[in-house]
């Protein structure tokens, strides 16, 4: 533990000197639903955190990856963070179930891992680039796969339906029960239309249908 604290002290001094002399000065990029596509190219370290002061451990550890981002640019690695409470859809797309999980992305390859939860351990983890040794996740589970993209769009639709129900509730003064009934009706109608469309496409594109046409 003493050695880890000594490493952390040296790291802090190094970063302070780097910032004072100019350094790369690369800031942590805020990743949201609108700009997440940029992480699919190049090398990215994405951290799923909470910017709320109520998450004390997130607030305590954030300076570590902020300092890391100031010199990781020389390694070709950009650092991004997702504010999970304000970006539930993007968190769902990456299948993140708890705070301080992270992804290391390298040209479309995804490595998923839990960050160490103490400053010395987190510093050593980043300094040694231990995330590069994590086994990549299967392609079908990656956020860029067709399956996860479909789930992502369904989550976006769910948020839209929920927002529209809240809008109706506020604008027309309907009760919470009525708002939930409207939300349920919207979900039912959409599910029916989606199911009908999938059955229709299956009928049109089935091998038997194509055989008859040929």
TrEMBL record:
An annotated Gene Ontology molecular function: disulfide oxidoreductase activity
Subcellular location as annotated: Endoplasmic reticulum membrane
InterPro entries noted in UniProt: Thioredoxin-like_sf, TMX_domain-containing
Membrane topology listed for this record: Single-pass membrane protein
Transmembrane segment boundaries: 179-202
UniProt entry keywords in alphabetical sequence: Disulfide bond, Electron transport, Endoplasmic reticulum, Membrane, Redox-active center, Signal, Transmembrane, Transmembrane helix, Transport
Signal sequence, start to end: 1-22
Record's keyword annotation contains Disulfide bond: yes
SUPFAM superfamilies assigned: Thioredoxin-like (SSF52833)
GO CC annotations, alphabetized: endoplasmic reticulum membrane
Designated name of the protein: Thioredoxin-related transmembrane protein 1
Source taxonomy: Eukaryota, Metazoa, Ecdysozoa, Arthropoda, Hexapoda
